[in-house]
């Protein structure tokens, strides 16, 4: 005869603890909301009562210019999103490749390992803006046969090269953080070094480094605006062009709102991944 599974019911003391925790969470939430509303209200009052607010309002927050420029800025923002979507998987692939090369120990791969070190040192040391300018202006000047002269593709390539170096170091940190026992277990199962890297090390490294990787991609979305220095008609360039013609900077605020609409959800998703990883490490 199968006995019924015992059911656990919380004791009166545990129920009291839960009530206290709920009450503390509500109290902290109420205090946080009240303080936030007060700070925002004071900051807003200081801004709108300043002597120069009417002039700033007309220059940066004009409803008429916001409505007129929105279709143009939105059309340019599509190029920012396209550049981001093209560059992101390429950056991840390049970063993983460079990170793996830097962790190799085979003497036959020494030239590639040195090349990976030089690549990360150079492209992490040069500002991204300079990389965009060097590729966007220098490559067409070389007049290579069969090489594109499109400033959009050259600018996106510059972002890939610049961010690939940062992502490579993030992935390498994740690889180094994998516990040696994992490598020993893979060796005991007669896995080759390539199989160990592919099936054991990389999955754990990428999972652990997901929050910092997503932070890099949030920064990448913002830095697609650097393509404006090459004359790409993306959101910032179109906003600047409209503002120069109409002597109004409201389109810049419109472009900033579009970037925020994309980066804030990515940032909150990154925070959620970080909290979930912390809960897993603490066994919750």
SSE order and pairing:
Layout: H1 12-48, H2 53-60, H3 63-102, H4 110-125, H5 128-142, H6 151-177, H7 180-188, H8 193-208, H9 210-223, H10 235-246, H11 250-281
What does this molecule look like?
- With 284 residues, the protein is mainly α.
- The protein has a domain at 77-233: MetI-like (MetI-like fold), CATH 1.10.3720.10.
- 80% of the residues lie in helices and 0% in strands.
- It is built from eleven helices and no strands.
- It has helices at residues 12-48, 53-60, 63-102, 110-125, 128-142, 151-177, 180-188, 193-208, 210-223, 235-246, 250-281.
- α3 runs antiparallel to α4 and α3 runs antiparallel to α10.
- The longest helix has 40 residues, at 63-102.
- The radius of gyration is 26 Å and the shape is flat.
- The mean pLDDT is 86.
Structural class: mainly alpha
Rg (C-alpha, Å): 26 Å
CATH architecture of one domain: Orthogonal Bundle
**What is the beta-strand fraction?**
under 5%
- Give the overall silhouette: flat
- What's the CATH topology label of one domain? MetI-like fold
Mean model confidence by pLDDT: 86
Let me know the largest β-sheet.
Answer: none
Task: Specify the helix fraction band.
Answer: over 70%
Secondary-structure element sequence? HHHHHHHHHHH
The CATH superfamily of one domain turns out to be MetI-like
Helices, by number, come to 11
Measured distance between first and last alpha carbons: 35 Å
Model regions low in confidence, pLDDT < 50 over at least 5 residues? none
State the name of the first-level CATH class of one domain. Answer: Mainly Alpha
Got a strand count?
A: 0
């Amino acid at each position: 005869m199968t006995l019924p599974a015992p059911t656990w019911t919380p004791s009166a003391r545990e129920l009291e603890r839960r009530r206290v925790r709920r009450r503390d969470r509500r109290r902290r939430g109420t205090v946080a909301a009240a303080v936030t509303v007060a700070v925002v209200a004071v900051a807003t009052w200081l801004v709108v009562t300043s002597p120069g607010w009417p002039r700033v309002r007309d220059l940066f927050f004009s409803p008429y210019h916001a409505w007129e420029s929105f279709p143009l800025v939105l059309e340019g923002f599509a190029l920012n999103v396209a550049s981001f979507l093209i560059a992101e998987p390429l950056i991840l692939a390049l970063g993983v490749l460079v990170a793996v090369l830097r962790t190799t120990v085979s003497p036959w791969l020494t030239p590639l390992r040195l090349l990976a070190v030089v690549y990360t040192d150079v492209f992490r040391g040069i500002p991204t803006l300079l990389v965009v300018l060097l590729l966007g202006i220098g490559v067409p000047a070389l007049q290579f046969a069969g090489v594109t002269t499109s400033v959009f593709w050259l600018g996106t390539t510059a972002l890939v090269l610049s961010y690939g170096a940062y992502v490579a170091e993030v992935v390498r940190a994740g690889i180094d953080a994998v516990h040696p026992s994992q490598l020993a277990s893979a060796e005991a199962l007669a896995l080759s070094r390539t199989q160990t890297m592919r099936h054991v090390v990389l999955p754990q490294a990428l999972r652990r480094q997901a929050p910092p990787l997503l932070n890099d991609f949030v920064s990448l979305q913002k830095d697609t605006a650097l393509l404006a220095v090459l004359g790409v008609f993306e959101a910032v360039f179109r906003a600047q062009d409209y503002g120069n013609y109409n002597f109004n900077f409201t389109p810049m605020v419109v472009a900033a709102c579009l970037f925020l609409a994309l980066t804030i959800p990515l940032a909150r998703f990154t925070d959620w991944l970080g909290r979930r990883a912390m809960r897993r490490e603490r066994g919750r």
